[in-house]
Amino acid sequence: MIRIFNHYVSRMGIVLLLMELLILHAAAALTTLLWTGAAHQPLQLTFSAFAFALVNVFCMSTLGMYLQQEREDMRATLARIAPAFVLGFALLSALMHVLPAIHFGRAGGMAFVLGGAGVVLTRLLLFKSPSAGMMTERLIVVGDGALALECLELAASPGRPCRFDVVGCVPVPGEASCVPAAKRLPPGESLLSLARRHGATELVVSVGDRRSGAYPVRELLDCALGGVRVTDAAHFFEREASQIRLDSLQPSYLIFGGGFDQSFLRAAVKRTFDLAASAAICLVTLPVMLAAALCIVLEDGGPVIFRQERVGKDGRRFQVLKFRSMGPDAERDGQPRWATAQDPRVTRVGYWLRKLRIDELPQMINVFRGEMSFVGPRPERAYFVEQLGRAIAYYDVRHSIKPGITGLAQVRYQYGASVDDAVRKLQYDLYYVKNNSLFLDLLILIDTVRVVLSGKGAR
């Protein structure tokens, strides 16, 4: 894994991204040069080819072609390339009307054909060749309790940014074993010699009680000095799952673990990004919003905009704005309720507004007012905040920054409708609060487009 602006990305993802950018750039430049003979305009040729590569990589990202679980399925790759390039063609056509410097002549179609072939060949070489195994990391888990079992499940789960081959777990005296016997390593050998014998490059320490004499402090130090990376389980989850796990979280990890950038520069960059992204989306979706408002009025004649009190930064309350997707008397008894799957309160128009996330668009006004950011934790109702704050440790940490229209929890987890869901989403929110950056905001924005196009997570 490679850390970029506090966010971890996989080495394989970086390699794939750079290779496909180069291949798509070369395909556009070569076909344009051969078909139009534009050698006398090198700057325009380079700029057009770069735009072609960047737009198509963005479109492939929004259709999930850089998701880990799709990387070895070539049928899925072939099925997504066509719609990704169709979307790329539409965006490039729009850009050519705005930026006349982008020009392909008659070579555009051939550039898509050559670029698509290059993408397929690149993925075949990376994911099907014997060298793909070089990206696999071998690790050993120190401990065999409940947390060790969760580390094993995370390492083995599909869709991880990094491939792992878990050698096994080293039992620690005094810890209740939860790991299958087949995954427990026999005692008697030092951690360093065990790691070297199995070719492990990392030790993940999942021991809960570190004050007992059984905690192998000296052996872990020998491993660190011997070139074997030693990682705490909390850091392992943060790195590999973009979560800060509550079940293994110590206050010292939040205090001394870095991150939590609240500097003036970060605030200025984030505010600029909020305004630019919101203004651009308002312009693009204005016809959609007008159509949505008309459909709401035609269905039941009720109000178009729904206002509801939510909790924002530092616990301040504000009125969030959304297109109304439920009937006017959705909470006639005055009792707040979680939204559920197939919620009967949702209108026919509201179902599609929620499915396509169109109901969230009026929140751009909240962003312009400064009450929300474009990216951040989801703003929750005060009634639920009081409940969740009493039930979940560190819940109020999410209120240290502005809430967002979209966020890491929204694109990584399903719609929250219970306390358990709130716990799982809080783990993503804590990660975002700790590691937020413009880079992470851009990645979440791309993931948001993917989620909207797929219709996942809506209720």
Ranges where pLDDT stays below 50 over 5 or more residues in a row are none
Strand segment tally: 10
Distance between the termini: 34 Å
Number of distinct helices: 16
Number of domains: 3
CA-based gyration radius: 25 Å
Q: Name the helix and strand elements from N-terminus to C-terminus, one letter apiece.
A: EEHHHHEHEHEHEHHHEEHHEHEHHH
Q: Given the C-alpha coordinates, what overall shape results? A: globular
By secondary-structure content and strand pairing, the structural class works out as alpha/beta
Q: How much helix is in the residues? A: 40-55%
Largest sheet: 4 strands, parallel
Strand order of the largest sheet: 4-3-5-6
Keywords: Membrane, Transferase, Transmembrane, Transmembrane helix
GO cellular component, one term: membrane
GO molecular function: phosphotransferase activity, for other substituted phosphate groups
Domain Bacterial sugar transferase: 270-453
Task: Report on the architecture of this protein.
The protein is an alpha/beta fold and 459 residues long. The chain has three domains: 127 residues, no CATH class; 108 residues, Rossmann fold (3-Layer(aba) Sandwich), CATH 3.40.50.20; 182 residues, no CATH class. The protein has 16 helices and ten strands. The strands form four sheets. A four-stranded parallel β-sheet has the order 4-3-5-6, with helices on both faces. Strands 1-2 form a two-stranded antiparallel sheet. The chain has a two-stranded antiparallel ribbon with strand order 7-8. Helix 5 runs parallel beside helix 8. The longest helix is centred in the middle third of the chain and has 37 residues. The protein is globular and about 70 Å long. 33% of the residues are buried. The mean pLDDT is 86. It is found in: Membrane. This is Sugar transferase. GO terms for molecular function: phosphotransferase activity, for other substituted phosphate groups. Belongs to the bacterial sugar transferase family. One of its GO terms (cellular component) is membrane.
